[in-house]
Prior knowledge:
Elements: H1 3-16, E1 21-27, E2 34-41, E3 56-62, E4 64-69, E5 72-77, E6 81-83, E7 90-93, E8 97-104
Antiparallel strand pairs: 1-2, 2-8, 3-6, 3-8, 4-5, 4-7
Amino acid sequence: xxxxxxxxxxxxIAREHSSGRSAVTVHGGREHHLRQTLIALAGGRxxxxxxxxxxxxxxxxxxxxxxxxxxxxxxxGAGDFLLIPPHRHDLEALEDAAVLLTVANRLAD
Length: 109
C-alpha cells in the first residue's frame, strides 16, 4: 500500500464531500490491538470535538493541522508526530491535510 497515493485519493474525496473529510482504516480494526486510520480533511474543516479514542497518536502526512484540547493547542505539519490527549479534543485542517491516526484498542477478554 502506498500512503501517498491513498492521501491523494482521500483528499480528492474530502474536497468534494459536504463534510470536507474522508477516512479509511489502513490496518486493524476492533479485532486487533492496533488500528491505523488515514483521515483526510479539506482546508478549514475539522473533525469537531470528540472523546479520546484511548491511547493514540497522530502523524501528519500532508498539510498542516491544529489539535485543540481545552485550553491547549498543538500545531503540526507534514512529518510531525502528535500525541492525542486522553480527553475531549478536535482536529482542524489549516490547509488540505492528511493524518495517520494510530489507536491502541483494548480487546475484550
